[in-house]
Each structure stands twice: as structure tokens, then as C-alpha cells.
Design brief:
single chain; about 290 residues; alpha+beta; Double-stranded beta-helix; nine-stranded mixed β-sheet; three-stranded antiparallel β-sheet; 7 helices; TauD/TfdA-like
């Protein structure tokens, strides 16, 4: 493997996943003390590598929002139940209960997907910041859509590039395993169905990625039977094989963000009767997939 370690006056960068070279981990940088030029370099590294990790951070909500604004415009949340008071850009993921009420959404994001795929302009990136984590379980997995696409034969790539996926937020919310609910008429109105390509072109450098998702897709447009989703299952299974997947084991103070334009991700379960987990999630607005 080519050594992709990068030395910088402010930090050092190594591959997030040494076995594949996917992603980047920045070592030796305290974001609270980083100047504007350093933060811009960090954002540039993120755009080129698909995922970014900084460990050992100690960021309050205002500092999280300040950093995410360097990446782009924060995206709001379709559901407002667990946004952090005073910080609508931050959504709380937690199984902690205070005063008889959960403080966050629990088991949210379990199942391979890309965030907001049901929107005309899905979120560009997702950032999670670890406030409290269990000693085992609750790993986050990220699948590299670029590597998966490039592993396919050229004729297979050409076939897939002709297909498009019909995404439905209503279908997703009313059939999901966790946090299932019926939508209000206003939520249905505000989240109409959309159609996106199965192979997505990254706007930064033109690299192509497989871009399937689970839960939101109701049809594959361009095949003989659009309602047959077996191809989608096949591609998700292929893209989430070990060679294409990075598994993140959380530590308190981890800041992990991934590029939804070229990845899939999933949360995993943990012993929620014994352990507590609290994460802060932020999103960055995206553009229409090409």
C-alpha cells in the first residue's frame, strides 16, 4: 500500500482504515485551538477522503456548530423531538432518561443507509460527536461506495449507471424497525417522494460511487420490474462486505464525520439495559445528486 501519511505543521494525517486506505484520521489537533487556515485544510481533507476522524476533542455545542459551519450550512432535522435546547442544529442520540423522559432518539440509524436520501437535496455530510459511550457495542460502520463501484466490471458499472431509485420518506417512517411512526399530513406534504441515481458522481473530483440505500427505496427505475428490489439488496450486500467497510469503535471525545455522497453507514446495537450512550449529530446541507 502506498504510504498516505501526511505531515502538517499543525497535525498529522493517516488513513482511517489502514487495510483499505479509506478515510483520514487527523492526529495532534485540538479543534478549539485551530485557526481558520488549519480548519480549512481539515475540511479539504474531508472532501477528498470520504470520512474524517479526530479523537480526544472536548467541544461544547457552540464549538460543534462553529466547526460544522466551516464544512457548510447546517441542515435542519425533519423531526424536532430531540434537538438540543438552544441548538436546533444538534440532534441528540441517546438511551438516557431524565425526569421520566428520554433525552434523545434511541437506536436511530440502524440499517445501511445514507442520511436524507428521501430529500431532493440529501445532506452532504453527517457528523457525530461522542458525549458518552458504552465500553462495548454501538460501533458505527461506514461503507466506501467509491471502492465498491471501482471493484465492479466495466460492463456492470455501465448497466447500473442507467438506473435510478425512487425514495419515499413516508414509506421509510411507516415501515422502519425502530422509531416507526405514521406521518402527519404536514410531514407528508413537506417530504414528497424523490428520484435519485443509483451511481452518484462526486462534485469535488468526479469520482463515482455506488449510492444505494435501505428503507427509503420503493422502486428501481430502468429495470423491467421497478418494484423488484432484489438488485438493491444485492448491491448493498456487495458494498457492505468487509473489504469496503470501516468499523469505528467509539471513545468519548471522538468527532467522526462522513461524506454521504459516496458512502453508506449504519449504527449497531449495544446492551442498552446496562450501558448509556449519548451522541450529538449534526448535518451539512447538500445538493441534488448527479
Amino acid at each position: 500500500m502506498v504510504d498516505t501519511t501526511v505531515d502538517d505543521t499543525a497535525f498529522r494525517t493517516v488513513p482511517l482504515d489502514p487495510k483499505s486506505g479509506f478515510g483520514a484520521e487527523i492526529i495532534g489537533l485540538d479543534l478549539r485551538k485551530a485557526d481558520e487556515a488549519t480548519v480549512r485544510r481539515v475540511v479539504g481533507i474531508f472532501h477528498r477522503h470520504g470520512a474524517l476522524l479526530l479523537r480526544g476533542q472536548s467541544l461544547d455545542p457552540a464549538e460543534l456548530v462553529r466547526f460544522i459551519r466551516h464544512v457548510g450550512t447546517p441542515e435542519g432535522h425533519t423531526l424536532q423531538d430531540f434537538t438540543l435546547p438552544g441548538f436546533p442544529e444538534i440532534y441528540v442520540l441517546s438511551n438516557r432518561v431524565e425526569n421520566g423522559r428520554p433525552i434523545g432518539a434511541h437506536n436511530d440509524g440502524v440499517g445501511w443507509h445514507t442520511d436524507y436520501s428521501y430529500k431532493a437535496e440529501p445532506v452532504m455530510s453527517t457528523m457525530l460527536y461522542a458525549v458518552e459511550v458504552p465500553p462495548e457495542g454501538s460501533d458505527t460502520l461506514i461503507a466506501d461506495g467509491v471502492a465498491a463501484y471501482e471493484a465492479l466490471p466495466p460492463e456492470r458499472r455501465a448497466q447500473l449507471e442507467k438506473l435510478r431509485l425512487h425514495h419515499s420518506y413516508r414509506h421509510f417512517m411507516e415501515t422502519r424497525e425502530h422509531q416507526r411512526r405514521r406521518l402527519t399530513p404536514e410531514q407528508i406534504r413537506d417530504n414528497p417522494d424523490v428520484v435519485h441515481p443509483l451511481v452518484r458522481v462526486h462534485p469535488v473530483d468526479g469520482r463515482k460511487a455506488l449510492w444505494p440505500s435501505t428503507g427509503t427505496v420503493t422502486e428501481i427505475i430502468g429495470q423491467d420490474d421497478p418494484s423488484d428490489l432484489s438488485l438493491l439488496d444485492e448491491l448493498v450486500a456487495f458494498m457492505t462486505r468487509d473489504p469496503f467497510v470501516y468499523r469505528h469503535q467509539w471513545q468519548v471525545g471522538d468527532l467522526l464525520m462522513w461524506d454521504n455522497r459516496c458512502t453508506l453507514h449504519t449504527g449497531t446495537l449495544f446492551d442498552d439495559r446496562t450501558y448509556l450512550r449519548t451522541m450529538h449529530r449534526l448535518w451539512v446541507k447538500g445538493d441534488r445528486p448527479a
